[in-house]
Design brief:
Helix content: 55-70%
Number of domains: 1
Distance between the termini: 14 Å
Order of helices and strands: HHHHHHHHHHH
Number of helices: 11
Length: 233
């Protein structure tokens, strides 16, 4: 799997599928499925993983899917979608990490809307897919230990979302020895616990993630509709 457009499609599809299920997400499912089938020959394993998540959502009533998503990602800190929580916990260091991520995204001309934190996995995946691919890839690689911890926790829980994380991991290089040691250490010890330094970053606010319609006007509880066909091939 070497084609940049394939990687972009996989990352954008993963960003869509891990978002909180709602009316707009359900309206994009057919587009997501078509895009994934289009890249299945180039990336059969990751495409199959993401199609499994798609099929689960398509077969699940929206209210039930939303409840499962909240239970998985909002009520269990061990499966948070906010990646710097794994490395920094609720500490002042996390504030610095969030600021650095925001600078990297805005420096590439990317504006986050709707109150999302810049360490949300969906935000970073969409940035890597549709923003600055090189910077986005670098950020995902730097946060690889957190991604691996989340993937392992979802796998242990038997969550369908583990397959979305498997697809994300497939878009990254093989982990180095240091990266492997880092995620195992995080999984074993957990994050620091100092509870300060996040007031300026909306800590405790329910978060969504932006999709790709730049002309949309996101409001409370809204999701921007995905347009997978805009990814260049």
């Amino acid at each position: 799997m070497t084609h940049p457009a394939t990687i972009a499609v996989l990352r954008q599809a993963a960003a869509v599928l891990i978002d909180h299920p709602g009316e707009r997400l359900y309206a994009t499912l057919d587009v997501v499925a078509a895009a994934l089938r289009d890249v299945a020959l180039d990336a059969p394993g990751p495409a199959a993983d993401l199609l499994a998540v798609h099929d689960h959502l398509a077969a699940t009533p929206p209210l039930a899917a939303a409840g499962h998503h909240v239970d998985t990602f909002d009520l269990r800190r061990r499966t948070s979608l906010h990646l710097t929580w794994y490395t920094d916990g609720d500490t002042r260091r996390r504030g610095a990490s969030l600021a650095a991520l925001k600078t990297a995204l805005t420096g590439a001309g990317w504006r986050i809307t709707g109150g999302e934190l810049p360490d949300h996995l969906g935000v970073l995946l969409e940035f890597a897919a549709r923003g600055d691919a090189a910077t986005g890839h670098r950020l995902l690689c730097e946060l690889r230990p957190s991604i691996d911890v989340l993937h392992a926790a979802l796998t242990e829980d038997g969550s369908v979302y583990a397959r979305a994380l498997a697809a994300v991991v497939a878009t990254l290089p093989a982990p180095s020895t240091d990266t492997e040691s880092a995620w195992r250490r995080l999984a074993r010890n957990g994050p620091p616990s100092e509870d300060v330094g996040l007031d300026g970053y909306g800590h405790g606010t329910p978060l969504g993630m932006p999709f790709v319609r730049a002309d949309s006007r996101p409001g409370r509880g809204s999701r921007r509709r995905a347009r997978m066909e805009t990814v260049p091939r």
